[in-house]
Amino acid sequence: MICPETAGTPLCPSNWPQDTLDLREEHSDLFRISNTMSHLELTGWYWGSLTSIEARQILNHTTEGTFLIRDSSNPEYLLTLSVKTSSGPAHLRIEYNEGRFGFDSVVLAKPKLRNFEDVVDLVQYYVSVSRNVHNAHDQTIAPMTKDTVIHLKLTKPLYVTTPSLQHLCRIKINKSTKTIQELPLPTRLKEYLLEYPFHL
After folding, report:
1. Separation between Cα atoms, residue 95 and residue 92, nearest integer Å
2. N or C: more exposed end of the chain, with fewer CB within 10 A?
3. Domains of the chain
């Protein structure tokens, strides 16, 4: 919703009635989800409406740790991470709760799981943990299915198509620095880099 005092701004003053503030909170959720979907579209490893069967067939021919993000077939969830594990492809639902994204799991595993404001941040974190041999065992046993514990090892995204050279350069620059604004680059190029502030 747009406030009359701040036309074009989605935030309302804090002294507005409670029902208006609730709408502001809903907008915040919509913004976060929309932002995440925009980032996922740029990754190259978001496969959209791929089914679990199709994801399994694709991942069967890959190495352990290869992953992709797709739309969830369960209407209660927005997204699913499909990954090739040592025992074959597995699918982990991603839930959105209280403004943050995290892997769905049984209650016992929840304390080990971390949540993030963006799905790309979530995946990026588990990729970095998987690459860190010392911490990998403790922090990748988190997501659990009904019957088993899945050792979550994420090593390589599976791209729908080969990313553009510009996007690959953006990822490399983001790996090298967190201070994009301080780089001696044209404003337009900085905006391009900040459009996707991840290194995966």
Report:
1. 10
2. N
3. 52-157 (3.30.505.10), 165-195 (1.10.750.20)
